[in-house]
Amino acid sequence: MTQFYGKTKICYGVDAMESLEQLAAKKAFIVTDQFMVKTGFVDRVVSHLDRRGVSHLVFSDVESDPSLETVTRGAKLFLENRADLLIALGGGSPIDAAKAIVYFAHKASEDVVKPTLVAIPTTSGTGSEVTDISVVTDKVNEVKIPLSDELLIPDVAILDARFTRTLPPAITGATGMDVLTHAIEAYTSRQANAFTSIYARYAIRYVFSYLLRAYRNGDDMEAREHMLLGSCMAGMAFNNSGLGITHSIAHSLGGMFHIPHGLANAVVLPQVIRFNSFDVGIRFQEIAQMLSLPAATVEEGTSSLIKAVCDLNEAMGIPARISMLEIGQEEYFNNLEVISCNVLNDICTQGNPRKPSKRDIIELLKLAW
Predict the structure, then answer these.
(1) I want to staple 199 with a disulfide (CB 3.0 to 4.6 A). Which of 88, 233, 340, 341 is the partner?
(2) CATH numbers and ranges of domains, the chain
């Protein structure tokens, strides 16, 4: 049986934040980071809660790549306050942390009524505002842990491109390439279907049309809005289809070497497209044709797509190889066995169109270096 599931109510546009005032709630628990507090973004959220007389507590301790310790601390505070509305404000890290807090709080005390979960993304990258996935980091063992549960799917996603306006070019580029990776892997996944393909194709088209514009001019609000929508669409796609080994590798590189997730995806994606081309080359040809790239044959379409991805990376100053990241060569090659095992055990690998062996992963990692 093939199925497509979409639970999240998506509110977007200039008046999207007003949807907060329509929620029935008495107490809100806001999960965010210090940057959101300092920029006044949290105050914007609070102002809408104040209009409805909803009390609130702000948990702003979320760090980049939220740790198990942070999530545990947040879950304890959430349980103590018994809020009926949980608002995640920020990039992938605060949203992942908020979702994990709901998950662990529920596991710790099943008598707790699940709060209404609202996600307000401030980056155009993770698509976490519509997915059942949260990634937390075990910093002791230096590994990222993907959680997957229907409980993690937000009830409401508020997409307001004004929150993304202050993103620096480098972060705009890296998070945008995360969107592209989500969309391409969703489109070529083992579990891809008619509905996921529609969302994935639109997301791919939006990235190639608007990412470079957003990178070059942060005030280009048309580009910002389309990237935010593309990120959400890609999230809807991969939440149903799964992803692939680009993400599995990025998870391991991030956990071990602290490479930003979107950046790791961007660097590895061309090699993974080449690796998967024997099995789903026709899908890469379809993407190339959609983008009006040379694609008379499967081989030409695949090569054109790889070149287009590499050109987009280069235009945004994203390195072409892992060796150009801040990773020592000896440390990298000494850990290839560990990385390959992490990749094979990663939940994202299940969706990869070509089933890899440990040797396949090691060879791919060597080529990507």
Answers:
(1) 233
(2) 9-164 (3.40.50.1970), 169-368 (1.20.1090.10)
